[in-house]
Amino acid sequence: MSNTPKNRTNVDIYGTPYTIIGKEPSSHVRLVASIVDEKMREIHVKNPSLDLNKLAVLTAVNIVNDYINLEDRVKELEEELKRREKD
User: Fold this and answer.
1) What's the Cα-to-Cα distance from 73 to each of 30, 65, 68, 78, 82, rounded to whole Å?
2) 11 pairs with which residues across the strands?
3) d(CA 69, CA 62)
4) Rounded to an integer, what distance in angstroms lies between the CA atom of residue 12 and that of residue 30?
5) Where are the beta strands (DSSP E) in 1-87?
6) Residues 6+ away with beta carbon under 8 Å from 64
7) Distance from C-alpha of 30 to C-alpha of 28, rounded to nearest angstrom
8) Using an 8 Å Cβ cutoff, are 36 and 60 in contact?
9) Is 24:4 a contact under the CB 8 Å cutoff?
10) pTM, whole model, 2 decimals?
11) Distance between CA atoms of 34 and 81, rounded to whole angstroms?
12) Which helix (H) or strand (E) holds 36?
C-alpha cells in the first residue's frame, strides 16, 4: 500500500455532486471537473435530446479526441525543436 496521502475533493459535474479521491491537489481536480462540466454543457446545447449516458460518452470521446490532438501537436513541436537544434 502506498503511504502517499490522498485528497478528497467535492465537485459538481453537470448538476451531480461527486467526491473524487486522489493524489492530485484539489485545485487540479476542480479544474478537471470544471472542464468536463463545461464540455458536457456545450454538447448538451448542440444535442439537447441526448440522455445522460450518451452525453457522458460523447463528452469522453470529445475530450479524448482533444487530448490526442494535443499529444500529436506536442510531438510535432518536439520534432521541430530537434530539427532546429541540429541546424
Assistant:
1) 26, 12, 9, 9, 14
2) 18
3) 11
4) 9
5) 7-13, 16-22
6) none
7) 5
8) no
9) no
10) 0.84
11) 33
12) helix 26-46
Extract the C-alpha cell encoding 26. Answer: 484539489
Q: Measure the CA–CA gap between 12 and 41, rounded to whole angstroms.
A: 13
CB-CB contact of 29 with 12 (8 Å): no
Name 52's Cβ contacts closer than 8 Å, sequence gap at least 6: 14
Rg (the chain; Cα; Å) = 18
Using CA atoms, how far apart are residues 47 and 58, in angstroms rounded to an integer? 10
Ranges of residues in the chain whose predicted pLDDT is under 50: none
Kindly state the cell numbers that stand for 83. 530539427
Neighbouring C-beta atoms of residue 7, cutoff 10 Å: 14
- The single-letter DSSP state of residue 22 is E
* Residue in 17, 24, 20 with CA at minimum distance from that of residue 8: 20
Q: Where are the domains of the chain?
A: 7-86
Answer for the pair 63, 39: CB distance below 8 angstroms, yes or no.
yes
